[in-house]
Design goal:
Helix 3 links the parallel strand 5 and strand 6. Helix content is about 35%, strand content about 15%. The two termini are about 35 Å apart. It has about 300 residues and is of the alpha/beta class. Helix 1 crosses helix 2, helix 2 crosses helix 3 and helix 8 crosses helix 9.
Length: about 300
C-alpha cells in the first residue's frame, strides 16, 4: 500500500497540503474549479496581479459553503519593492484586503532582491541593496500579530538561507524554490531538513515559461520511462517524485483534466528500484532570475552571485 503523503507538517505545527495550486496567470474560473476538485493549498503572490480576483472566488466559495476558510491553506508573497520594514505590513494588509481574508497561512519573502518602491518591475536602474535581516524582522512582527500564521522565504540559496538562520528569531517555516527531477536541490534539501525548514517546490513540472524549458522535465527520458512502467503520466511521476523526496509541490494548470490528474498522486508510489534512477538525471536550473543581476547597477553583479554558485 502506497504512503499517501497528503500533507507536510511545518515547524509551526500547521499542516501544508502536499500538492498546491500555483496561481500565476490563472483566471478566476480555473481557481474556482481547482478548489472544487480538491485543491486546498492556494499559492498566491502580489506580483501575479490577480489577488483581487482570487479573493472574489474565495469569498464566493466560503459564503456558499463549498469550502471553509480553515480548510484552505493560503500562501502569498512579499514583492521586492516592499522590502523596507515600514512597507512590509502595508503589503500584507493589501494582500489580505484583496484576498478578502483576515490572515494568510504562509507569507514568503518572494526573492532575496530589493527594488525601488515605485518600481515593481526589475530593471537595472531599479535594483537596490537588500537588507534581508531588517525585512525579516518586519516579517517576524507579522507572524507575532497573527496576520501571517507562518512566514518563510522563496528563491533563497543555501548560503542566503543560512545567513538568515543566523539572525532570525523566528525560523522560516518554508523555503519555496524551483525543484523538479531536472533541478533536484539536494544540498539545499539537506540544509532545510536539518534546520526544520520545509522545502516547497515551485515549477515542479519544469519552468512556467512556455516551450522548451517545460518539456525538459515532462520529456525527460528517465521520467518518461518510469511513467510508462507505472502507467502514469510524466507530470504525475514528476509530482510523485517530489512528494517522495519530502517536499510539497505547486503545479499550475488551466485544464480541468490536468488539475484532476495532478491531484492523482496519493494512492500509488514510485518503487525504490525506479526511484533511484532519478539521481542519474543531469541537472539544469531552468528559473535563473537574470533580471535580478546586473554587472554595473545590481547588488548582485551576476546570477552566480544571486544563487551563490548553486546554478
Amino acid at each position: 500500500m502506497a504512503t499517501a503523503i497528503r500533507s507536510f507538517e511545518l515547524n509551526t505545527g500547521a499542516k501544508l497540503p502536499a500538492v498546491g495550486l500555483g496561481t500565476y496567470a490563472l483566471v478566476p474560473s480555473t481557481i474556482e474549479q481547482a478548489i472544487k476538485v480538491g485543491y486546498r493549498h492556494i499559492d498566491c503572490a502580489s506580483i501575479y496581479g490577480n489577488e483581487k480576483e482570487i479573493g472574489s472566488v474565495l469569498k464566493k466559495l466560503i459564503d456558499d459553503g463549498s469550502v471553509k476558510r480553515d480548510e484552505l491553506f493560503i500562501t502569498s508573497k512579499l514583492w521586492c519593492n516592499d522590502h523596507l520594514p515600514e512597507d512590509v505590513p502595508k503589503a500584507l494588509d493589501k494582500t489580505l484586503k484583496d484576498l478578502q481574508i483576515d490572515y494568510v497561512d504562509l507569507y514568503l519573502v518572494h526573492w532575496p532582491v530589493s527594488l525601488k518602491k515605485e518600481s515593481p518591475m526589475p530593471k537595472p536602474e531599479t535594483l537596490t541593496k537588500p537588507d534581508l535581516p531588517s525585512t525579516w524582522k518586519a516579517m517576524e512582527a507579522l507572524y507575532h500579530s497573527g496576520k501571517a500564521r507562518a512566514i518563510g522565504v522563496s528563491n533563497f540559496s543555501s548560503k542566503k538561507l543560512q545567513d538568515l538562520l543566523n539572525v532570525a528569531q523566528v525560523v522560516p517555516a518554508v523555503n519555496q524554490v524551483e525543484c523538479h527531477p531536472v533541478w533536484q536541490q539536494q544540498s539545499l534539501h539537506e540544509l532545510c531538513k536539518s534546520n526544520g525548514v520545509h522545502l516547497s517546490g515551485y515549477s515542479p513540472l519544469g519552468s512556467q515559461t512556455k516551450g522548451e524549458a517545460r518539456l525538459k522535465v515532462l520529456q525527460n527520458q528517465t521520467v518518461a520511462e518510469v511513467a510508462e512502467k507505472l502507467g502514469r503520466t510524466t507530470a504525475q511521476v514528476a509530482l510523485r517524485w517530489g512528494l517522495q523526496m519530502g517536499h510539497s509541490v505547486i503545479p499550475k494548470s488551466s485544464s480541468e483534466a490536468r488539475l484532476q490528474e495532478n491531484l492523482d498522486v496519493f494512492d500509488w508510489s514510485i518503487p525504490e528500484d525506479l526511484f533511484v534512477k532519478f539521481s542519474n538525471i543531469p541537472q539544469e536550473k531552468l528559473v535563473r532570475g537574470v533580471e535580478f543581476a546586473n554587472e554595473s547597477l545590481g547588488f548582485y553583479k551576476t546570477i552566480d552571485e544571486l544563487w551563490d554558485g548553486e546554478i
